[in-house]
Amino acid sequence: MKKNKMLTLFISSFMLSAFTFGGGYVIVPLLKKKYVNELKWINEDEMLDLVSIAQSSPGALTINASILVGYKVAGLKGALITVCGACLPPLIIITIISQFYELFMSNPIIQKVLMAMNIGVAAILIDVVYDLAKSALIDFKVYALIMMFITFVLAILNVNIMLIIIFGGVSGYFYFKNHFHIKSNKEEA
């Protein structure tokens, strides 16, 4: 049974890594679908915790999340299996692309496919923002709609990532400052 679980971990992390374009948070809904909904190896709260830890750790979110899921499910061996599964597809793909780089970059069809993939990544990021906001906030509907709209506009306008980080930090500060201030006033009454 344990051998089967290890094989499932390897194949799952390999497939998730192979078919995830865009990196970062694009993998979150796929991890949730696989490990929470299908395999039921972790619950949704554990998934959010693992993603938070993976995000705060140095390195790629996909690799970090894979390591943490593997470790949670099967200990150190599980972490090693999932990191191998997550690292192999990009290694294989980059090796192939490097052999045909000039051919790929001069092909207008491939350029259009890559542009379409960017649009798909923006849509997936909107979904991730919505899911994370829904799980983390009580009054998520308004906040999620605002964040989805902002994410979509910023992705379309190709805004500098540093401006997005600064804006997110400032808006998060004011949102949570007001959120906790209102709660503390209610508690005093």
Word description of this protein:
With 189 residues, this protein is an all-alpha fold. It has a domain at 1-99. It is built from eight helices and no strands.
Task: Report, as a whole number of angstroms, the end-to-end distance.
Answer: 57 Å
Shape estimate: flat
Helix-strand pattern: HHHHHHHH
Question: How many individual β-strands?
Answer: 0
Can you lay out the helices and strands and say which pair or pack?
Elements: H1 2-18, H2 27-38, H3 44-56, H4 61-99, H5 101-106, H6 108-136, H7 140-157, H8 161-188
Give a short synopsis of this structure.
The chain is mainly α. It has eight helices and no strands. Helix 2 (27-38) packs across helix 4 and helix 3 packs across helix 4 (61-99).
Defining traits:
189 residues, mainly alpha, 8 helices, 86% helix, flat, disordered C terminus
